[in-house]
Design goal:
This protein is of the alpha+beta class. It is about 30% helix and about 25% strand. It is built from 16 helices and 22 strands. It binds one RNA strand through strand 1, strand 2 and helix 2. Keywords: Aminoacyl-tRNA synthetase, ATP-binding, Cytoplasm, Ligase, Nucleotide-binding, Protein biosynthesis.
Amino acid sequence: MRRTLYCGNLREQHAGEKVVLEGWVNRRRDLGGLIFIDLRDREGIVQVIANPDSTCFTEADRVRPEWVVRVVGVVRSRPADQVNPKLSTGAVEVVAESLEVLAEAKTPPFPIDAGWRGEQDQSVNEEVRLKNRVVDLRRKRLHDNLRLRHKVIAAIYRFLDAEGFIGVETPYLTRSTPEGARDFLVPSRLEPGHFYALPQSPQLFKQMLMVAGYDRYFQIARCFRDEDLRADRQPDFTQLDMELSFVTQEDIIALNERLAAYILQEALGVELSLPFPRLTYAEVMNRYGSDKPDLRFGLELQDATEVFKGGEFRAFASAETVKVLVVPALLPRKEIEELEALAKSKGAAGLAWARLENSAFTGGIARFIPPGLREKIAISEGQTVLFVAGPWRKAVESLGAVRLELGKRLKLIEPGYKFLWVVDFPLLEWDEEANRWTYMHHPFTSPNLEDLPLLENNPGQVRAYAYDFVLNGSEIGGGSIRIHRRDLQERMFTLLGIGPQEAQEKFGFLLEALSYGAPPHGGIAWGLDRFVAHLAGEDSIREVIAFPKNKEGKETLTGAPAPVDETQLAAVGLAIRGNA
RNA sequence: GCUCCGGUGGUGUAGUUGGUUAACAUACCCGCCUGUCACGUGGGAGAUCGCGGGUUCAAGUCCCGUCCGGAGCGCCA
């Protein structure tokens, strides 16, 4: 008595067949002398009917939602007036001959049946959902999300295999490397007092595979970073990691956008037109105030630095940058104040404003606006102008945050998938705290060779061969061409304040590898959880991870992290220090 | 570490300027019902309103603290 097919796959063509179904009771309708059971498995639900004269009627009377049952019965077409058009199995039903209870079930803590009959699931507090993740995972939404994730990964394997990529696994127990994110440490039993670190990414391993001549590598790799969590970030996450030899930045970008188009075609049936826009870092920062702009709406920032320069409005006259956002609405005072709070949280000194009413600026800083503004920037009746003045980076980023918020509030965001590449990132940025230059991407990123002469004297101007892959305002990938010459890598380490001794100690194996004849190479890593979340239309990556961590980094199903026995600690030579 | 938001039967919500039996839906249990498909219908059980303290004649409601959860800042090469 093995299952003959999935409940959700029954169709009119099966009418007259005897079938064996196994699954969960999604819902039971007891009409007194007649009982209907919606039986569910991963493919969907089908209506099972138990007649009062059937031997299985007593069992059917006993079952409850979420019980696991095996039904043997005959498929029958429903009369036209009894077809349920909402179900893909709605043209048939199964007349039960026998019904065997395989497992009884407690009443679930929250409803899970609605999604399976094509309705909206009731929203349930996430804390309750995560505590009962097994029940939660039964819901249609998570079934759909995890199957979408699988389709994406299967498409990645097909595409990259066809492109000649070789999948290679790299170690999870590896060595701690300085900077970047905080490492997760794993104590060594064989060498007490020494630690492995879980990899933040397979970066160095894949570079060494390139030196070893594998030419095209990829891996769906788990990565670990011990930092605080967000809706789109958790400590163990999945990357699609790849690396290619003898390539340029353009080769990697072109390949990856073809991959993205293939995935969307395979997983969602969505057609994308290539190539995706390529914008420089300077351009996206100036136009959108973000290095991961959401291109699903316009509302671009504009520049008014020159208009105010040397003018009577002191606050703007000497500002490095004055950015302007023209909002197609007359914003009320209260809303502007909320937006100002947002701008300030991103480092703006304030958010100046004025409205254009009856052909004149009114309110806010209206009387300080020079006539030149309207010559430079188109502003129409009934619009609001918002300004941020200050250092360039703070000005654009804070007004960029306002842009994003207004996009949401004014419902300007169009549906769809807006991919783009951000290129020409600066190689280095100034670290105020450490009072020195630090890398923007990672220390193995190649400078743009045209800018090499600037490296020591004007490091801030040096562009990197680094690129980010952005989808709907979210960074879903990033990569770079790597340094493949030992001398240049050592020069970078020096610039970053990593002395020869430290470089040798921490990255000796890399420098050694580079001295054995390394090919020019580069690659990229995608944040797979984020990418899938976007495709699934979810705001949180927890919706596309089977067993996610909560905001506090806890895995609520097993209760990790948890204390361990004294003997386990002793085995690795550790003792817990009292909380100071 | 910080800011903001939330916590009311199993679940999802309501609860007015503080006012006495904490409401509704659904789920659950029992009864009736042969064509339902969120079946219908009658009945029942189920909440010391996250926890502690304070103000008050009176606190789900106001105040303070605390715990838990979420969004964000810092952090995340």
